[in-house]
Design goal:
75 residues; alpha+beta; 3-stranded antiparallel beta sheet; 1 helix; 21% helix; 32% strand
Length: 75
């Protein structure tokens, strides 16, 4: 798993990468950005994303078979 933190600072986009096993560092980095935001600095849109580099398939569904019969049901 790898991690990336995205944020805006003074209307400029930024990103910081973290290696597998560094989830604690990435969360502390986000915490620091949020603290700066809450203290009034121009920091916004703080987001943490993860990706599994060992994922062998594409994310989502691009084809379904003839037996696929999904229906939206309302409760």
């Amino acid at each position: 798993m790898s991690y990336k933190v995205y944020w805006f600072e003074n209307d400029e986009a930024h990103a910081q990468s973290f290696l597998s096993g560094e989830i604690d560092l990435s969360l502390k980095f986000c915490e620091g950005l949020r603290a700066r935001q809450y203290s009034g600095e121009d920091v916004s849109f703080v987001s943490l994303c993860s990706e599994d580099p060992n994922n062998a398939t594409k994310m989502g569904v691009d084809k379904t078979g003839p037996d696929y019969n999904w229906k939206k049901r309302r409760s």
